[in-house]
Amino acid sequence: MDRVLSGIRPTGYLHLGNYFGALKNFVRMQEENNCYFFIADYHSLTTHPKPGDLRTNIKNVLVDYLAAGLDPEKCTIYIQSDVPEVCELALLLGMNVYVGELQRVSSFKEKVRRQPDNINAGLLTYPILMASDILIHRADKVPVGKDQEQHLEMTRDFAQRFNHIYGVDYFKLPVAYNFGENLVKIPGLDGSNKMSKSDNEASCIFLSDSPEVICKKVMKAVSDSGPTEAGQSKSQAVENLFSLMEAVSTPDTVAFFEEAYQKCEIRYGDMKKQLAKDITHFVAPIYERIITLRSDDDYLSKVAKLGAEKARESASKTIREVREIIGINYN
Ligand code: ADP
Ligand code: TRP
Fold it and tell me: 15: helix, coil or strand?
């Protein structure tokens, strides 16, 4: 049985990109694997959220997880900070990680560019904490979007380095996983190639958006002035509309608009109406569960408590073994 793990930072509601990149396959995998899904609240502290906002975001993400189909009976759903063992592993792994390699990580370099006033040590050591999240449960597979590939590569490096230094075959080398398919990237409604709440909230459709909101957002999505000759290649914005359609509509629907595009007969208004309808249809059952779960604080606390217990059991076993390997076993 594979051990599968994934996590999302609680920085707002979950969007379609999160769903297709990190959640959808996970939901399928929980049936046959030993699955861990967590809320990466330590990681989110790099952007200094207010305590009240952090609590709200954790609740919202937990609700979104459950509504999207994660089942606390089948997998372990937990909040990262309920499992402090992950911090000890990060400290231990960090002893064999070099500052230079952390400075070369693309997500770090991008943060340095974007937020020069807040280049904190947590941003630099982010990949070590992420590796600990994964290695603490000795996961084999990590369902994430394409943007996380480099972090996974580093996790494998750190795991291999640990094994090599101590002459053991302890940590497995986890892989980024998308159910046998290529890693996906869902584009944004703003013409950008990634739906992302941290880049631009306006690019996102959230799982908790009502049908009215979805319709408004899609109708406002960026497009272009339309093709003028047959076979003309698509602009990024229009390519995005097609990619979104591929994710939520039937192949026939996509083919219909593709043909219209090729013949220069496409009407983006019609395409967007269809897209809004198909997204709404897709999101509706999740949206309804979100509304119900939001008011069930007792159930949410129970889920978090049960998850913390299960996750700590697995994490403390790893920490015991790692301490033993390193030689922290004086008694
Ligand atoms: P955001 O960019 O909106 O802040 P996160 O960085 O919190 O999203 O991403 C959480 C998870 O969702 C990660 O596994 C990431 O790979 C996946 N993900 C985020 N955006 C997309 C997207 N547009 N397409 C595919 N996967 C995505
Ligand atoms: N870095 C991931 C993101 O930004 C979140 C994350 C933290 C994660 N630890 C993880 C994802 C461990 C998978 C496994 O989306």
Answer: strand
Q: Where are the beta strands (DSSP E) in the chain?
A: 3-8, 34-39, 76-79, 141-143, 175-177
**Co-location of 214 and 81 in the same domain:** no
Q: Kindly tell me the burial class for residue 54, based on how many C-beta atoms sit within 10 Å of its own C-beta (0-12, 13-18, 19 or more).
A: middle
Task: State the CATH number of the domain containing residue 83.
Answer: 3.40.50.620
Question: Structurally, how many domains does the chain consist of?
Answer: 2
**24, 141, 194, 272: which one is catalytic?**
194
Nearest in space to 77 (alpha carbons), one of 8, 164, 168: 8
Residues 120, 232: one domain?
A: no
pLDDT, one tens digit per residue, over 142-197 is: 988 788 999 999 999 999 999 999 999 999 999 988 766 666 789 999 999 899 98
The finding on whether 133 has its CB within 6 A of some atom of ligand 2 is: yes
- On whether both 158 and 267 belong to a single domain, the answer is no
Kindly state whether residues 92 and 209 are assigned to the same domain: no
Residues 307, 284 within the same domain: no
Q: Note whether 51 and 161 are same-domain residues.
A: yes
DSSP string for residues in 193-240 = SS--TTT-GGG--BTT--HHHHHHHHHT----S---STTPPPPHHHHH
One-letter amino acid of 280: T
Tell me the best of 3, 36, 43 to mutate to test the pocket of ligand 2, counting ligand atoms within 8 Å of each CB and taking the most.
43
Pair 71, 37: CB distance under 8 Å:
no
Residue 57 lies in a domain: yes
- What local confidence, expressed as pLDDT, does residue 32 receive? 87
Q: Is 134 in the pocket of ligand 2 (CB under 6 A)?
A: yes
> What residues does 39 pair with on adjacent strands?
8, 79
